[in-house]
Amino acid sequence: MEKPESLEEFYQYKFNWLPDNLQQDIGHFNVFAMDDNFIVNPVPARYSRRDFYKIALIRGRNVYHYADKSLEVDGTALMFFNPTVPYTWEAACDKVTGYFCIFKEGFFSEKMRGNVADLPMFAVGGKPSYILNDAQDAHVSGIFEKMLEEIGSDYPFKYDLLRNYVTELVHYALKMQPSEALYQHPNANSRITAVFTELLERQFPIEAPSQRFALRSANDFARHLSVHVNHLNRAIRETTGKTTTTHISERITSEAKALLKHTNWNISEISYCLGFEEPSHFNNFFKKQTRQTPSAFRIV
To answer: Which of 111, 99, 105 is nearest to 148 (CA)?
Structure first.
């Protein structure tokens, strides 16, 4: 799989220059306005992972490719991109305006409760996109304008303010989600399901052919969680409406699609890292899930 795009590559690709302090600042932060003077690179951005976080407000008609999904938006979207998920976007109109900021995880180290990667919009499987109306656009634009003003100031504590502005963006988006999306686990079944999901997602993304998906069955997860497999299956079905096996199969299929489309690994290598003993087993599994063979899916 291609290595994630680095900050250095981002600056060279987008602006053809590097900030002087980039090498020293592991908690790097920067913010940009996409206005009439902002040049959109005519070469489409690579569909790839980055080694930094990005929050963008983009106006116009655009198509976003995120993980194995594509979303077309005609209007204003607030997007949250994390380093573990490949993404890109392409303009489908002549004029694109908005803002975006980029930062490394170190920008928030020891400055916030929990981990930035655990925030719902950055978590794997979370909601990364929010469609804004005019009033919401104005509010979010105001936050980005404050960032732009502060990044150019000589105020010695400006990065504390910038962290606050990013946090404000996060909470503004969270408040837009349905209340049930933020509801704490109401019972034991919900808690077991949340831990199961975390264990499942923790095994991804697969980034090297030598990496192997280990917990592949309901029994594997039950042993890891020290619960009876029937209890695990019942909790997950009652909470999600799907079986444990269905969740595992869907996640393996999603990762298989990403590996087939975005790596040059052969089918045997992909089969091995996804936990299949034989390529024929992977072929049968993938065909059952998608009605296509891995080879046919790769060339579409």
So the answer is: 99
Q: What is the pTM for the complete model shown?
A: 0.55
β-strand partners of 55: 80, 101
Judge contact between 53 and 10, C-beta under 8 A. Answer: no
Best CA proximity match to 140, nearest among 56, 35, 37:
56
73 falls in which pLDDT band (50, 70, 90)? Answer: confident
Is the confidence at residue 182, as pLDDT, over 70? no
**58 vs 285: CA distance, rounded Å:** 39
Reference 267, options 281, 249, 246; nearest CA is 281
Whose tokens are 């979207």? That residue is 77
Rounded Cα gap, residues 175 and 29, in angstroms: 24
The stretch 219-240 carries a mean pLDDT of 90
